[in-house]
Design brief:
By secondary structure, the chain is an alpha/beta fold. The protein has helices at residues 6-14, 27-31, 46-49, 67-78; strands spanning 2-5, 21-23, 39-40, 58-62, 82-87. The chain has a 5-stranded parallel β-sheet with strand order 1-5-4-2-3. The longest helix is centred in the last third of the chain and has 12 residues, at 67-78. The chain is globular and about 30 Å long.
Length: 98
């Protein structure tokens, strides 16, 4: 499984990169603060909404601490997606939040 640190994601965003971030936390968690520009797909709905994703784009999975996003990363990899887990999740995030 490919991994990237929250700091690396923050640096790439601050350098102007357009990243495809998918937050797999629950609705109330995302409403409490999320990285600007994320796509929100709760982990429990990922299997049913994976058709909304493009297999030609790389994705970075985000959750609270890195566990659920790791599960999401494994699942999407098994479905043929280019996906990376953000280690440490939002607990490690020091960048902007909405």
């Amino acid at each position: 499984m490919k991994e990237i640190s929250a700091k690396e994601v923050q640096q790439r965003i601050e350098n102007g990169e357009q990243l495809n971030l998918i937050d797999v936390r629950e609705v109330d968690e995302v409403q409490g603060g999320h990285i600007p520009g994320i796509t929100h797909i709760p982990l429990g709905l990922l299997e049913f909404r994976s058709h909304e994703l493009d297999k030609n784009k790389p994705y970075i999975m985000v959750c609270r601490s890195g566990g659920r996003s790791g599960q999401a990363t494994h699942y999407l990899q098994s479905q043929g997606f280019d996906v990376t887990n953000m280690t440490g999740g939002m607990m490690s995030w020091e960048g902007k939040v909405e």
